[in-house]
Design brief:
Elements (H helix, E strand, L loop, with lengths): L12 E7 L6 H9 L6 E7 L6 H11 L3 E5 L5 H12 L4 E4 L5 E2 L3 H11 L6 E9 L5 E4 L12 H6 L14 E5 H7 L11 H11 L4 E12 L5 H4 L2 H15 L6 H28 L3 H10 L4 H19 L2
């Protein structure tokens, strides 16, 4: 098969895609990355031991365009493991993250890299605003109003931006473009114990290592907002892993009490969320003793439990009320 694009020795940016059971959506994500203008791209797709046709799909895409590179994991390791494999393969001066069911606008990467290179002194991380879309690709509006996007972020500001109130937005959702040599210099990679929240911890690691961060207010990343309630999407083991990751961060902050206090506050919120989910699921299953035991161990979660229970009752009432 004739290659449509000659291989490039030095891409400007490597787009990393972790793919698990993504055969149906992956071609759209890959083509969106390849359509980037103003930069030379390579797209590295790592199949996370999918049990569908994901690997065959991406191999076919690689046959059609030399900018697509493929790897696969022998065992499912989650997005962090797949992205770490892609990081090890990357050749670009910058690396960007794209989820397999998302897309990006053609000018996004060039604009973000230009932002990172235009500032005086090196900018190591550029975070991009999101445009939320539904499963049919219809816009649901920007993730953050562009006029409310911070120009730059310190570690403290980033942690605060990830302790969202109810209905708020966490800055950890913003998708990064990062200088690859900065990651290599500081030995920074994804925490392979995490299956969600992994981008937040990668960015925080960069900031704690002294990295500088700018934010692009333009919503150039098309983030697919999945349907379904939050409780259906939360995995208790994943929450426990996030709490463990917070403990790991705290262990490095003995000389930074202000940051440690912020991380401790965020950790308390995660513990409250884990307790709430544990209590509500136990009650739903009729395991009252288990629910009371969890709530007794973490009484601070009582308010969240009550709020979630009321919201659930309101949703059910709406479903049965004409």
């Amino acid at each position: 098969m004739t290659l449509t694009t000659p291989p490039r020795d030095t891409p400007d940016v490597s787009v990393l895609i972790a793919a698990y059971r993504a055969a149906a959506v992956l071609p759209v994500a890959v083509q969106a990355a390849l359509a980037s203008v103003g930069v030379r791209v390579e797209v590295i797709v790592v199949d996370d031991a999918s049990n569908d046709a994901t690997l065959a799909v991406v191999q076919r895409l690689a046959e059609q365009d030399a900018r697509v590179r493929v790897a696969s994991l022998a065992q499912n390791g989650g997005p962090s493991a797949a992205r770490n494999r892609a990081l090890a393969m990357a050749r670009g001066a910058w690396v960007a993250v794209l989820d397999a069911d998302d897309r990006m606008k053609p000018d996004r990467l060039a604009r973000m890299i230009a932002l990172g290179e235009a500032r005086s002194g090196a900018v190591d991380v550029v975070l991009g605003n999101l445009e939320q879309v539904d499963g049919q690709g219809r816009s649901l509006g920007p993730f953050l109003p562009p006029d409310r996007v911070p120009d730059g972020l310190t570690a403290a500001a980033f942690i605060r931006g990830n302790m969202r109130p109810a209905g708020g937005q966490s800055l950890g959702y913003l998708k990064p473009v990062i200088r690859r040599d900065f990651l290599q210099q500081h030995g920074i990679a994804y925490d392979s114990t995490l299956r969600n929240g992994e981008d937040y911890h990668l960015i925080l690691s960069c900031l704690l290592a002294g990295g500088t961060c700018q934010v692009d207010p333009v919503p150039g990343y098309l983030y697919t907002r999945a349907a379904g309630s939050v409780s259906h999407r939360i995995d208790l083991d994943h929450l426990a892993a996030l709490i463990g990751a917070e403990d790991g961060v705290l262990a490095t902050l003995s000389d930074h009490p202000d940051l440690a206090a912020l991380v401790t506050q965020r950790r308390r919120g995660l513990v409250a969320l884990l307790t709430t989910e544990t209590v509500l699921r136990a009650l739903k299953a009729g395991r009252v003793a288990q629910a009371m035991s969890a709530l007794t161990a973490h009484p601070a979660a009582a308010t969240m439990v009550l709020r979630q229970a009321i919201e659930g009752g309101v949703r059910r009432l709406r479903q049965v009320t004409p």
